[in-house]
Every structure is written in C-alpha cells, then in structure tokens.
Write a structure and sequence with these properties.
This protein is mainly alpha-helical. The protein has helices at about 5-25, 30-35, 40-70, 70-95, 100-115, 120-130, 135-165, 170-190, 205-215, 220-255, 260-285, 290-310, 315-340, 350-375, 380-390, 395-400.
Length: about 425
C-alpha cells in the first residue's frame, strides 16, 4: 500500500471508529430505553421499524446527494441530523412521549443514518482507486469491520455500564457529543478524492439522471439485483435479533435491571466483528467464489439463530450468539467487495444506498411482526421465527451465483473511476 492509499485508509478507519462509537453507546440498552419510556414490545419494535422506514424513504435521495453534491457533504449532513434526532429521543424519554412522537423522531434517526450509508464506502473505493491501490478490497473492508467491532465493544460496554451507574438517558447524550466531534474531524480531514460531484444548475434533472443510471447498474443488473433481494431477509432479521437479544438475555439471566448483562449481546457482536474482519481476507483466499461465502454464512447464521431461540441456558445462549455473530461478520466484507466490484464509480453511492434501502425494507416488516410474536409467545419463539425468515435469502444468493459475474471470482475491485 502506497502512502496515499495508506492515508485514505487511515481517514476511513477514523470515520468508521467515530461513527460506530457514537452509535454503539445506545445499542446495548436501546430496547430497554424504549420499554422504560412506557412502550410495549410491539411499540418498541414498531419504533425501530419507523427508523428503518426512514432509511427506506431517504436512502435514494441521500445517495443522490452523495453522488451529486459530494460524499463529504453527505457525511457532514449525517452527523448533524443524527445528533439532533438523538437529542430529541432523549427528550421523549424524559417526557414519556406518546408513540406517534417516537415514530416521527425514529424516522429522523433513519434520515441521519442514510447520509452515511453508501457515501463513506463509495468515498473509500474511489479514493483508493485514485491513489493507485490495487490489492483486494476484502482486506480494507475487513480492517474497517475490525475497527467497527472494537468501537462497538467499547461503546456498548461503556453505554451499559454508564446506564447502570446513572440512568438510561445518559448514553444518548454521550452519543450526541461524539457525533458533534466527528463533524469537526470530517470537516478537517475528509475530501472527495477520485470523484467529482456533478452539481448541475438543474438539480431535478441531474437527480433523475443519477437515479436512472443507478437503476440500470443496480436493480437491472441481475447479479446485483439478486444480492439486493436477499438483503431484506438478512438485514431485517439482523435488526430484530440484535435488539431482541437484550431483553432475552436479561430474561435468561433472571435480573431485569442488569443492564451490563444486556450489553453482552452488543459486545458479542462487536467481538465477532473484530475476528470476522480479520478472518475475511483469509476466508476469501480459501474459497474460489465470493457467493460461496455468502450462501454458507447466511444458511449457517439462520440455523444458529433458530438454536438460540430453543435454548433456555444463559451461557449456552451466549456461545450460540457469539458463533452466530462470527459467521455473519466473516461474510460481510466479502459481500461489500462483491457488490462494489459490480458498480460503476459515478453511481456507486446511490446503488449502495439502494442496497441499504432493500435491507431496511426488511426491517420494516420483520421487526413489528417478530416483536408481536415476542409479546404473544415470548422471545425464544420470535428468535426462532427470525432464523426461519433469514433462510429465504439463500435462493436469491444462489440466483446471483448462477449469473457468473466476473466479480464472483475477482480478488480485487477492477472498476476504474469515470
């Protein structure tokens, strides 16, 4: 890696570290926070569904912002929007706000995250191409996932401990502070390199042009389309399982006030991200096709989640959650590299936002359905049901494999910025 590429990677890892640290302060206690505010399980997961609905509504518009006005601009807008919406969440908790107000602010939180999704990854890939980087992208994405895992581990553990020492609202205020700090960091370090935003005097026409080109290179491109169609099942289930594991672990542990124990779910996911990110380049070199990794990891994680739902032993549940997280984490950098290798530079952020939109759309359906199942039948059955839902992703991944895209066997992203 040459010095220019190394600098780009350092900035990328810094952004990932700050973003994930800010977000993870509340990941370990988010469901408990919503329940403490007076929401039922159905309402709590419906609030999460409104968050993912916000991501669905705004993914494409913010992707167009990133491709049309710059990935740096999109990132800066994301930090400010997310900081403001998080503070509103804190106020609603204090005021015991009605459900409709939680729904509205959850949509705003979704808007904040959509400014990040696609933009940072697109910024990285184009900047590395411009700087002359020619190695496999799994290594870079794997490092990003490792950094994200460290941040999640630190943030979720600190958030749970902070909530237990103070109250459930303080971690949300810490998140606001970190997001403001990341705005200042990105303002000073981040520049659009290897990509020139197409700022037009006719923004609506430019938006339509970017959107049309993104559809041609996304949903109309069969191997990309099938990967996207698998996302609602994998991402939707991931959203629900991550947050449902918090109260489920407390239930198994037998102490509803043990917030640090609730943070174990997030900590286990974080540890798996670290190890999975480290494993990803090795796994990729051992397996000829990227889709093999995706198919095996998806099927295995589905079966493990079903097993989690059937256990009533706390420590066994922890082991199963750790393995489930590890298998899913090892496949994530491979999926990122596979998808990026099939997307042109100019539409990269928008197509990646389409992919995020597809995943979020699954969360809109899976979370309230599984949340209602938890209300009626309990968390174990709802988690087992989630595992069954995730299995529906496998046929779509098989369909992408049958298209025989050159990206399936490539070791490096070959697209050049245009």
């Amino acid at each position: 890696m040459n010095p220019a590429s190394r600098k780009i990677q350092r900035i990328y890892l810094t952004l990932i570290l700050g973003n994930t640290l800010a977000a993870s302060f509340i990941w370990g206690i988010n469901t408990l926070f919503l329940l403490d505010a007076g929401l039922s399980n159905l309402e709590a997961f419906a609030a999460n569904a409104f968050f993912t609905a916000g991501m669905v509504l705004f993914e494409v518009p913010t992707g167009v912002v990133a491709d049309g006005w710059g990935r740096r601009t999109s990132y800066l807008l994301g930090t400010l929007t997310l900081a403001g919406a998080t503070y509103l969440y804190y106020l609603l908790w204090q005021w015991k706000g009605p459900f409709w107000s939680w729904a509205v602010v959850s949509v705003l939180l979704g808007l904040g995250f959509t400014f990040f999704s696609g933009a940072v990854e697109a910024w990285l890939v184009d900047a590395l191409h411009y700087s002359g980087y020619g190695d496999d992208m799994e290594a870079v994405f794997g490092k990003g996932q490792m950094v994200s895992g460290v941040a999640t581990l630190l943030g979720s553990a600190a958030g749970g401990a902070l909530a237990q020492a103070t109250n459930l609202g303080v971690p949300f205020l810490v998140r606001v502070g970190v997001l403001v700090a990341m705005f200042l960091v990105a303002f000073g370090l981040m520049r659009d390199v290897g990509f020139v935003p197409e700022r037009s005097s006719r923004p609506l026409a430019a938006t339509r042009a970017v959107l049309a080109a993104s559809i041609d290179n996304g949903l109309k491109n069969p191997p990309v389309r099938y990967v996207m169609l698998a996302a609602p099942f994998t991402v939707g289930v991931g959203f629900y399982a991550f947050y449902a594991l918090q109260p489920y672990l407390l239930e198994l542990f037998g102490d509803p006030q043990a917030y640090t124990v609730a943070g174990l779910a997030a900590a286990l996911v974080a540890g798996a991200q670290i190890v999975g990110g480290w494993m990803a380049p090795t796994v990729r070199r051992l397996v000829r096709k990227r889709t093999t990794v995706l198919i095996v990891s998806t099927a295995a994680s589905s079966l493990l989640l079903i097993a989690v739902g059937f256990t009533r032993v706390f420590w066994l549940a922890l082991v199963l959650i750790a393995v489930w997280s590890l298998i899913a984490a090892a496949g994530t950098p491979v999926r990122q590299a596979y998808l990026n290798d099939m997307i042109p530079s100019k539409q990269r952020a928008t197509v990646l936002s389409f992919d995020s939109l597809m995943g979020s759309s699954g969360g809109i359906v899976v979370q309230p359905v599984a949340g209602r199942a938890a209300d009626v039948y309990g968390y174990p059955l709802s988690l087992a049901l989630s595992g069954l839902i995730e299995l529906f992703a496998v046929p779509f991944l098989l369909a992408s494999r049958r298209r025989r895209s050159p990206a399936d066997e490539a070791l490096a992203i070959t697209d050049k910025p245009v």
